[in-house]
Amino acid sequence: MSTYPTYKLGEIITDAIGGDWGKDPSFQDDSYELAYCIRGAEYKNWASEKGSTAALRKIKSTNLLKRQLKEGDIIVEISGGGPEQPVGRTEVITKDVLDNFKGKKVLCTNFLRLIRPNISVVDSVFLNHYLKFFYSTGEIIKYQAGSNNLRNLKFNDYLTIPIPLPPLATQHQIVSRIESLFAELDKAVEHLRAAQQQLKTYRQAVLNHWLNNEDGKWETVKLGEVAEIKRGRSKHRPRNDKSLFGGKYPFIQTGEIREANGGTITTFSQTYSEKGLAQSRLWPKGTLCLTIAANIAETAYLGFDACFPDSVVGILAQEDKLSLDYFNLFIQLIKQEIENKASATAQKNINVDFLENLGVSLPPLSEQQRIVEEIESRLSQAEAAEAHIAESLQKTEALRQSILKKAFSGELV
User: Fold this and answer.
1) Cβ–Cβ under 8 Å, residues 236 and 251
2) What is the pLDDT of residues 332-384, one digit of tens each?
3) 16-47 pLDDT per residue, tens
């Protein structure tokens, strides 16, 4: 519990001003001028980009007089979000942010709102750290309203949230301590991300070493000559007809294939009824699923009999000619090449004809099995390292929140 006195957010700011989206830069009117408009999209990479991807817009000059962002302002997301990302994210406008725009005027879109802290009582960076901490606790959910796909911040209520406020000199000390500790965490995260990338490079090198056929030592065959390749079925329209669902037949979708990441699908969130099954196809356990639309060439094995839509193909190998495990690894090797070819189409996708004619370097079956064993032996070590890195990244984020919690409870300085 904080040892500091608390004030309502509205009591420690001097202004709360809405944003403006203005008009297209080509708009002609002398009462408008060009300015950069920060959107919710800029929040994603704020740490590295500092809002520099903001959109250039034409804004009415009289609107800019009160909406132009200044150093120390905090921008609050008041509309957007969704079930997985509540509305209410914040960022502080620092000198680094304004320097990105080389003297050009900057404001925020009407989906954001600027709040201007009273700098005689509160440090802007301190306040932004607290608002971020408040957001991370999940308490922000109480201050939003709206539909599933668009949430709005109940801003007047938001202005009543309690802010622990030590003396200004102590705030400066806390900010300095937070940022020193965060800098150390950022270095750790940078090293972990670099290690993740090195493991990806290693994985690709292993696949290339064992599956490469540059010297032509293996026969290249068309996939359709050694495997059955069929699209999933979902004939009924509309696809979301409730009568199709709720039965005993698992219905797998592209997201579940992506999550399995080349492994085996062991859970499902949707099922078909008898009617759903009648307009689809039940694929056997062990089928290799491959996505052909949006997310291209993601693979996973069925861990049970299941149906899937026509954005997925099922692949069943001729067992005396092709090891599905070998082919799954081969797809991972050439995934980027397949994605590049898919991107060249009007709509990013591939089709059954493309897969049937896909050239596969095919050693004898016994050699395929040996290659799979060699690759999996090496990649299992990489996967263990990747899991350790992922756990470490989660711990750094937990530590970041712990630092903030101590900061605002009086334990950091």
Assistant:
1) no
2) 999 988 988 876 655 677 889 999 999 999 999 999 999 999 999 999 999 99
3) 999 999 999 999 999 999 999 999 999 999 99
Q: From the CB of residue 146, how many other CB atoms can be counted at a distance below 10 Å?
A: 15
Residues with Cβ within 8 Å of residue 67, at least 6 apart in sequence: 17, 18, 19, 20, 59, 107, 108, 114
Query: What is the amino acid identity at position 103?
Result: G
Task: Decide: pTM greater than 0.90.
Answer: no
Domain range annotation of the chain: 6-165, 167-212+365-413, 219-362
d(CA 99, CA 95): 6
Helix%, strand%, coil% for the chain, nearest 5: 45, 25, 35
DSSP bridge partners of 17: 114
Residues 285, 304 contacting (CB under 8 angstroms): yes
User: What CATH fold (topology level) applies to the domain 219-362?
Assistant: Adenine-n6-DNA-methyltransferase TaqI; Chain A, domain 2 (3.90.220)
Q: What amino acid occupies position 61?
A: S
Report helix, strand or coil for 90.
strand
Q: Which CATH architecture describes the domain 6-165?
A: Alpha-Beta Complex (3.90)
**Scanning the structure block, which residue is given the tokens 């200004």?**
168
DSSP state of 120: T
